Amino acid sequence: MNRLEQGQTVLLRLGAGAAIAARVDTVDADVAVLVLLTPPLRPPVAGQPAEVEATSKRGIVRFDVTIKDVDGRGTVRVAPRADGAATVQRRDFVRVDAVVPVVVRDGGPDGPPHEAMTLNVSGGGLLLTGVSGLQEGDSAFVAIDLEDGSPPVEALVTVVRIAERNSRAVRIASISARDEQRIVRFAFARERQARIARDG
Asked: 9-88: which CATH topology?
């Protein structure tokens, strides 16, 4: 499991359940210790098969693991179930220029809120302005107001690049399938509007 890095944000997938955001506390070839960033509805149990998903420069890397033990305080030890890991390319999403409000919480889902704005939006990531405190590799929880009268889209994001004018390019690390579809539909609708305006 030495492709994981200490401090890295990963997803822990337990069967068909939702992915749980976690931070790698320690890692070696035989075991990794993960600190869960959000409490799961159904906590993992020792012996349970699971999957750890991490992002590398080549794409998304998934490890088949077994839960070794859980300490009850949100720390989980996992061990690989098979040699190697599969690298999967990230999906391509439509990216559109869109300025909508975002609430950013960089101290966890209940951390202090900071108001920010998007500069562009896609199903796989955002370009944010007003979050100068976040550095490359930092993670934060965001609530994106798509201004459609529905509750904000919520996601865990990771900063992948400090862009021009001190903006932050972030990758969406964890999001519900429903909220991902909402962002994708929003991006397609904005792209269609821009094309109509451009073509007359």
From this structure: Pnp Oxidase; Chain A (2.30.110)
Q: Which CATH class is domain 96-199?
A: mainly beta
In the chain, domain spans? 9-88, 96-199
What's the whole-model pTM score?
A: 0.61
| Chain segment 13-50, per-residue pLDDT in tens | 887 656 788 889 999 988 999 998 877 777 889 999 99
Q: How far apart are the C-alpha atoms of 157 and 124, rounded to whole Å?
A: 10
Residue 39 DSSP one-character state: -
Using CA atoms, how far residue 100 sits from 154, 163, 193, in Å, is 14, 18, 16
pLDDT digits (tens, 9 = 90+) for 80-124: 987 656 655 555 678 899 999 999 998 777 788 999 999 999 988
31 exposure class (CB count in 10 Å sphere: 0-12, 13-18, 19+)? middle
